[in-house]
Amino acid sequence: MVEEIFDVVDAQDNVQGAFGRQEVHAKGLFHRAVHILVRGEDGRILVQRRGFNKDCSPGLWDTSAGGHVASGEEYQSAASRELLEELGINCGGQLEFLFKLPAGVATGQEFVCVYQGVTAEVPYLQESEVAAARWVSREELNAWIKRDRSQFTPVFLKICEEVGLI
């Protein structure tokens, strides 16, 4: 299997070079990622349970889709790619940029651009990445997080705080 290559960036998110996934994570280098919140036409949010084979936060609940930005790739195209790869959804090709989180401990040293999309499409889970997915209302999600925050990734909790879901 070919190792993924990521752009390594400085504290202002300027590209400084490109390195393999293992080296980037082992050295804690700043790099880029995307997260997408998918809402159904009824307003519910799709959350995914990360695959149990993942190297970061296996089995924890997370945003609808997310992943690294490949070397030379733009945030927006990475968001569309990850959404299609993980869930088979394209949100009609329309993803709305919400905000950007700075790189830090809560994000795994990743600058994270967060997008939102609305769909009526039925998700098709990529089994190697996603263990499960389910639609939840804002109220259900809020109660779930209050019951047990440990079931969720740190970046998901940060994103939920930023968008006012919790």
Could you give a quick summary of the protein structure above?
This protein is an alpha+beta fold. Helix content is 24%, strand content 34%.
Overview of the molecule:
- The chain has 166 residues and is of the alpha+beta class.
- Helix content is 24%, strand content 34%.
- Strands 3, 4, 5, 6, 7, 8 and 9 form a seven-stranded mixed beta sheet that branches. It has a two-stranded antiparallel sheet with strand order 1-2.
- A hairpin with an 8-residue loop joins strand 7 and strand 8.
- The N and C termini lie far apart (39 Å).
The run of helices and strands is: EEHEEEEHEEEHH
- Biggest sheet details: 7 strands, mixed
Report the count of strand segments: 9
**Strand percentage:** 25-35%
Write the layout of secondary structure elements.
Elements: E1 5-9, E2 15-20, H1 21-27, E3 31-40, E4 45-50, E5 61-62, E6 65-68, H2 75-87, E7 96-101, E8 110-119, E9 130-136, H3 138-147, H4 154-163
Parallel strand pairs: 3-8
Antiparallel strand pairs: 1-2, 3-4, 3-6, 4-5, 4-9, 7-8
Keywords:
4 helices; 24% helix; alpha+beta; 34% strand; two-stranded antiparallel sheet; 166 residues
